[in-house]
């Protein structure tokens, strides 16, 4: 599963300071000098698909392995889309902020495309790192679900859930209120809201779930909650991994519902018992997005990735692992019942709200408040 490193750096500092190591894979015939808004050239994409680099898109994150294989097969590119096999695609694990920094700072062999929390889309646009290409099918998306001038589109929608290893914690938490109980002290893993889209989604979920006015968004209530969470020592300081979860070292995890669904399915085969629930207070529907880099050496392949993201085939690859395709949430795609069978029960989502006007706060605002109102106040 995609992991996020804990850091207290703020986003602007990361974007100017981070220069990540280059993966050992070559570019291709693509060039940043080409007309980014023109349709993709399939023949050029075939060359580019011989070796390409992504970031923050491991095979098991929203099913990106199968998604990229679908890109290879649909356009007959002759490539292998699974990064774990290392034949054509290499993926480097990064948080949303790190991905934008890589797009900005790496001058050769930069990542072609990455997955981001949708709130980070505005950061990528401000930093001017995006490929100026918009799929024709993006016309079906509202303005808040795509870049103004091209380069990112929403992929699938998730809600923060609580996954518990019930072999270690037989009385699992089922609400945000439960997570503050003494019995869960030092047991709860969360992602870093300073750098991570999942971390920001976790803050947004509490802002929606804990608002005094139902259906509204209260960032103050969220910060108060997390400051109390830290004061009580609830956070597990160890880095979460599938292995640490199995061993019971990180027995409770807050992450997107589809991520926890996949994680639970993987450990089920090993005899590990889990519970995965949407917090009783609710949360917020939050899209993830795919963004592509204006400096990529593989622009035609990047365009096909953006096109395929909003195709029926591409959208249904996300549904297979418990994520709700963005076109499904907009009423523009039918998802077969057999794919929905892997989703959490609809009854768990009754208190989940849509973010007002889909106008997400800038991640730097959340990062700054997390630093000052949570980490400092919470000790």
Automatic annotation (TrEMBL):
GO biological process: thiamine transport
Record bears the keyword Signal: yes
Key word Signal present: yes
One cellular component term from this protein's GO annotations in UniProt: outer membrane-bounded periplasmic space
Pfam families given in the database record: SBP_bac_6
Top-level lineage group: Bacteria
Signal peptide: 1-24
Gene Ontology molecular function, alphabetical: thiamine binding; thiamine pyrophosphate binding
Keywords, comma-separated and alphabetical: Signal
Protein name: ABC transporter, periplasmic substrate-binding protein, putative
Organism, scientific name: Mycolicibacterium smegmatis (strain ATCC 700084 / mc(2)155) (Mycobacterium smegmatis)
């Amino acid at each position: 599963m995609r992991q996020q490193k804990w850091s207290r750096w703020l986003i602007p500092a990361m974007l100017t300071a981070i220069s990540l190591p280059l993966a050992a894979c070559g570019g291709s015939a693509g060039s940043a000098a080409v007309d980014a808004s023109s349709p993709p050239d399939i023949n050029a994409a075939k060359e580019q698909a011989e070796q390409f680099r992504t970031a923050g898109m491991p095979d098991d994150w929203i099913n990106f392995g199968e998604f990229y294989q679908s890109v290879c097969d649909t356009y007959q590119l002759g490539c292998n889309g699974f990064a774990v096999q290392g034949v054509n695609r290499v993926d480097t694990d990064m948080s949303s902020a790190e991905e934008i920094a890589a797009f900005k700072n790496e001058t050769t062999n930069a990542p072609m495309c990455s997955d981001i929390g949708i709130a980070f889309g505005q950061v990528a646009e401000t930093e001017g790192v995006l490929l100026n290409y918009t799929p024709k099918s993006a016309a079906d998306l509202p303005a808040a679900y795509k870049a103004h001038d091209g380069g990112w589109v929403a992929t699938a929608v998730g809600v923060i859930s609580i996954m518990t290893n019930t072999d270690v914690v037989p009385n699992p938490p089922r609400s945000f209120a439960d997570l503050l109980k003494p019995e869960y002290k030092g047991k709860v893993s969360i992602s870093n809201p300073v750098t991570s889209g999942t971390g920001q989604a976790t803050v947004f979920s509490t802002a929606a779930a804990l608002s005094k006015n139902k259906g509204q968004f209260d960032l103050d209530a969220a910060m108060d909650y997390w400051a109390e969470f830290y004061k009580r020592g609830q956070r597990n300081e160890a880095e979460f991994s599938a292995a640490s979860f199995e061993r019971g070292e990180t027995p409770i995890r807050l992450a997107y519902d589809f991520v926890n669904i996949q994680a639970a399915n993987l450990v089920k085969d090993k005899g590990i018992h889990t519970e995965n629930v949407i917090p009783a207070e609710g949360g917020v529907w939050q899209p993830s997005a795919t963004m592509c880099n204006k400096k990529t050496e593989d622009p035609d392949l990047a365009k096909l990735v953006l096109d395929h993201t909003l195709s029926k085939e591409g959208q249904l690859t996300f549904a297979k692992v418990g994520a709700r395709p963005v076109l499904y949430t907009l009423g523009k795609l039918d998802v077969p019942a057999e794919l929905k069978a892997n989703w959490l029960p609809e009854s768990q989502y009754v208190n989940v709200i849509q973010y007002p006007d889909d106008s997400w706060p800038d991640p730097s605002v959340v990062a700054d408040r997390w630093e000052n109102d949570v980490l400092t106040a919470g000790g």
